[in-house]
Each structure stands twice: as C-alpha cells, then as structure tokens.
Design brief:
The protein is α/β, with parallel strands linked by helices. It is built from six helices and seven strands; from the N terminus they run βαβααβαβααβββ. It has a seven-stranded mixed sheet, sandwiched between helices. Helix 4 packs parallel to helix 6. The longest helix has 21 residues. It is globular.
Length: about 170
C-alpha cells in the first residue's frame, strides 16, 4: 500500500491533490484542522470540502490535526512509516494582511508546520536531509540525490497572496 499525506487537505490546493493522487491509486491521508475558519471567519470554513472528500473518495482518511503539533504528526508518520510515498504540504496561512495582525500564529503555521513535516520525513528516512536552495518562480525542482523537493509558486500579482505548496516525493 502506498500512502500520500496531504496537509491542508480540505483547502483548494490540498483537496485537488487528494483527488489526483487518490485517482492514481494511492491511499490518501488528509491533515486539516479548518484554520481557514479561524483566519477568515465562519463563511470561509473548509469543513464542507472535508466532508465532500470523506463521502466521495473511498481511499481517503481524514485526520483532524494541526501540523504545528509535533506529537500528532509524529504519531501519523509512525503509523504509516515506510508506506508513505508522497507528502504534499498545502497547509498555510495565505494572507499578508492577516499575518501582520498575528505574526506569531502566521509564523507557526507557515514555518514551524513546514519544519515539523520536513523533519519527520527526514527522521523516518523518507527524504534526504540535504539542504535545498533557489528562488521560486513558476515551477522549480531542487534535487538531492534520487529524492527531491519540489516548490510550486503561483503569484497572483506582486502585492497579493503567494501560494506555496511543498511536495516531497519519496523514491
């Protein structure tokens, strides 16, 4: 059994990734805690999308979890171990304006959450610990031996939200 872990699975990018990789035969574990509701109010909740994924995709399992919570994420990685074939990190706080109001929360979600996932993948031997570097423009691939870290950046314009999705492919 091959597992894809998708953080931010109920959001736009995450839900699309869930559908894509589930259709390719992977079992998908989605991690999402509907922080969008906290960020932008009840009308921005992604719960409806989570429920749609749970109803419509038979090889999808949802974990109500926070990528900032090391214990929860460690338990998930421990449970699936070497069956993890793909990690898609689409969880984020995407608003610059919101970040200015709560910079600590913004940093914790966007930076600490990313570090937690990356260190768990490294600690379980799923990806190399070698650093990656470069700029984000369209689509860039940073290789590290046979494994790589892919950053996909989409700019709406110079002053609005930048979408960053991290994908770790495990070979």
């Amino acid at each position: 059994m091959s597992i894809a872990i998708v953080s931010g699975s109920a959001g736009l990018v995450g839900a699309s990734a869930v559908g894509l990789f589930a259709s390719q035969g992977l079992d998908v574990i989605g991690v999402d805690n509907d922080m969008r509701k906290y960020f932008f109010g009840r009308e921005a909740s992604t719960r409806w999308n989570r429920e749609l994924l749970e109803r419509s995709i038979k090889n999808y399992r949802h974990v109500e979890g926070d990528i900032r919570d090391q214990d929860t994420m460690d338990a998930l990685f421990r449970e699936y171990g070497k069956e993890i074939a793909l990690i898609i990190h689409a969880a984020a706080q995407p608003s610059h304006d919101w970040a200015a109001r709560e910079p600590h929360t913004d940093f914790a979600v966007n930076a600490t959450g990313t570090i937690n996932l990356r260190l768990l993948a490294i600690g379980r031997g799923l990806i190399n610990a070698q650093p990656y570097a470069g700029h984000i423009a369209g689509q860039n691939i940073f290789s590290a031996a046979s494994k790589f870290f892919l950053l996909i950046g989409e700019f709406k314009n110079a002053t609005t939200t930048f979408l960053l999705t991290a994908i770790w492919l495990i070979s």
